[in-house]
Amino acid sequence: MYQQNPNPTGSLFLSALLALIPLVAVLVLLGGLKWKAHWAGLTALALAIGVAVVGYSMPLGPALNSAAFGAATSVLVILWITFNAIWIYNLTVHSGHFAVLRRSFSSISDDQRVQAIVIAFSFGALLEALAGGGGPVAICSVMLIALGVDPMKAVALSLIADTAPVAFGGMGNPITVLNTVTNLPADQFGAMAGRQVAILAVFVPFVLVAVTDGKRGLREAWPVALVAGLSFGITQFAVSNFWSYKLCDIVAAIVSVLAVVGFTRVWQPARSIPPVIAGGATTDSRRDVVTAFAPYAIIVAVFSIAQIVPVKKFLDSLTYKFPWPGLHITNAAGKPVATTYQLNWASATGTLLFVSGLLSLIFLKVAVNKAAQIYGQTIRQFSWAILAILAVFSLSYVMNFSGQITTLGLWLAGTGAFFAFLSPVVGWFGVAITGTDAGSNALFGGLQVTAANQLGASPFLFGASNSSGGVMAKMISPQNLAIGTAAADLVGREGDLFRKVFGWSLLLLLAMCVIAYLQSTPVLGWMVP
């Protein structure tokens, strides 16, 4: 039995510096030394185990077992989702319908800046709302590449765009997790998060235009960026506050696409940046267009059916839970730390995507044996990225179970009223480590609520800030960098990609910190439920 000690050095500041070593190592190795993601992840994992054993007095056995638990968790939470999302995409490529899908999006506008907004921001938000994981980054990246966008820029655009919807991704899973770890109403967390990320959502399309074409692009294409951002942000706010946080990104994505399509019917940039599409102009039949969109319509239908109460209860009843063998941990108060592995094979997002892929075979007219062959090719496509994802999840669980994560949270919570400003930073650290907003909320949601109670602040503000701040780290987490580079055939260039998006991550995080702080004061305190 290992008992966590969040302050092993006797000085919380020194203990925090100790706990920061693995995370700083990842950032430096990726961004500074341009290491490949799998080597950076494995090195940081080794450092985390070293810190756990030497600094936190965690026995080597439980430390290694924690890493194994994390790796096993990543298979279901990330790899199973990503493999199936990219498999569906590869099926559309094989059937020839991806080209139809690409032309359908390009027909909205022949300008790459508009296409970046429609594909990476609006369509990517729909994919994030339905599945989450690495699917939106991978699928949107290859779509943009097919339209002639530079591969590195395409992945960067997809990563940056995947900030606005992440807090409600996977049918609101991050918000649901906050309810699970705090026992406070999920709707309240969802409403508060909607009063934060909806503000930033307005500005994300402007960032995409800037990345695509710089300052000149902003001068020329700002009207469509404004339409996309406002339509998405207002809808996200309204649905999360007055209807359902689980559906807000789906509705916001659809409204955003319709708004941009309608706007581009009466307005186009004076100077266009045309796509580079080989093969010349092609007219697709209505049947081909419907077939091209069929897999994504099927995904919407399957996920919607899975949310029907009787169906959801049945799928959940098939979940198998068991204590992870040999892993017995208590926190500083002596209470057991949850080390239960949840094998929700039937209700898992990846399984629902797999079912959607099987149903898509009928519409795409792909034989089962060919679909199996394509699945094998999909797994091989990720190669070293798989190791990077396993390493990063192992890292997060070693840091969590050893107490390193708690140390960082307590250190930041000790800043008093200024913690409202730093609250999103805690979530940012969590996503940088785990790669998922739900994972960050699982790690820090309880800590945020505890800090709020100690400071006399709103637990919904701090809990939502954890989720809202976390989404800004989605673009720099090693596992998402690995997924993006794998999809774009850029494996090994994760460091270059990290450097390209890191500044935007910090800038958006700073904006969220300012919003959260003002919401803790009379200036914007009226926004807190």
Could you explain how this protein is built, in words?
- The chain is an all-alpha fold.
- It contains 23 helices and 4 strands.
- The protein has helices at residues 12-32, 37-55, 60-95, 97-106, 112-130, 135-146, 151-161, 169-182, 186-194, 197-201, 204-242, 248-264, 286-306, 309-317, 349-364, 368-382, 384-402, 404-413, 419-434, 437-455, 459-470, 478-487, 494-519, and strands spanning 2-3, 320-323, 329-330, 340-343.
- It has a two-stranded parallel ribbon with strand order 1-3.
- The two termini are 41 Å apart.
- The model has no long low-confidence stretch (mean pLDDT 88).
Range of strand content? under 5%
Work out the number of β strands.
Answer: 4
| Spans of at least 5 consecutive residues with low confidence | none
Mean pLDDT: 88
Structural class by sheet pairing and helices: mainly alpha
Number of domains: 1
Distance between the termini: 41 Å
Strand order of the largest sheet: 1-3
Radius of gyration: 22 Å
- What's the helical proportion of residues? over 70%
Molecular shape: globular
Separate helix tally: 23
Major β-sheet profile: 2 strands, parallel
SSE sequence, one letter per element: EHHHHHHHHHHHHHHEEEHHHHHHHHH
